[in-house]
Amino acid sequence: MKFLLRIAAAIDALNTTIGRWMSWLILFCTLTSAVTATLRYTLDWGSNALLEAQWFMFGLVFLFCSAWTLWEGGHVRIDILHAKLPPVVQIWIEILGALLFLLPACLLIAIDAWNYFLIAFQTREASPNPGGLLWWPLKLAIPVAFVLLSLQGISETIKNIAILTGDRPLPVRKGGH
């Protein structure tokens, strides 16, 4: 179990690092939005590339911070019911939820998104708007982000199993870590 917990810790560290770096895109997205609005209203000049860059940054934050949010215990749960259950039952729900729902859904989305990316890459998909950006690079982020979310689901499952086996104490805070 110690080896699996080291793997879980490595996954946690990877997703935390990625999430923290990606969260900086919120600042850049905000600055890009401010620059876009300023240029539009002061100089009557607009840029499809700037608008699309905002969408891309927001999408990257959403995608790459999902695994970090899972680690933090920030995803929506049925808290009203979940909070009233004994801790061992909560942990079993987390394990079964990850194995039956989270991991299969993430892997199906990652596989489908990989094919979606390949088509976009082969056709060199780009914005239909004048001056827009290439779209195919962003589409690579979708399968990568869902693989990272799957890895985090595996990490959370390992940690929850470790709690059930006594190799790890019950969590003090919300989340399963």
TrEMBL record:
<keyword id="KW-0813">Transport</keyword>
<dbReference type="Pfam" id="PF04290">
    <property type="entry name" value="DctQ"/>
</dbReference>
<comment type="subunit">
    <text>The complex comprises the extracytoplasmic solute receptor protein and the two transmembrane proteins.</text>
</comment>
<dbReference type="InterPro" id="IPR007387">
    <property type="entry name" value="TRAP_DctQ"/>
</dbReference>
<protein>
    <recommendedName>
        <fullName>TRAP transporter small permease protein</fullName>
    </recommendedName>
</protein>
<keyword id="KW-0997">Cell inner membrane</keyword>
<feature type="transmembrane region" description="Helical">
    <location>
        <begin position="53"/>
        <end position="71"/>
    </location>
</feature>
<keyword id="KW-1003">Cell membrane</keyword>
<keyword id="KW-1133">Transmembrane helix</keyword>
<comment type="similarity">
    <text>Belongs to the TRAP transporter small permease family.</text>
</comment>
<dbReference type="InterPro" id="IPR055348">
    <property type="entry name" value="DctQ"/>
</dbReference>
<feature type="transmembrane region" description="Helical">
    <location>
        <begin position="91"/>
        <end position="114"/>
    </location>
</feature>
<feature type="transmembrane region" description="Helical">
    <location>
        <begin position="21"/>
        <end position="41"/>
    </location>
</feature>
<keyword id="KW-0472">Membrane</keyword>
<feature type="domain" description="Tripartite ATP-independent periplasmic transporters DctQ component">
    <location>
        <begin position="38"/>
        <end position="160"/>
    </location>
</feature>
<comment type="function">
    <text>Part of the tripartite ATP-independent periplasmic (TRAP) transport system.</text>
</comment>
<keyword id="KW-0812">Transmembrane</keyword>
<feature type="transmembrane region" description="Helical">
    <location>
        <begin position="134"/>
        <end position="151"/>
    </location>
</feature>
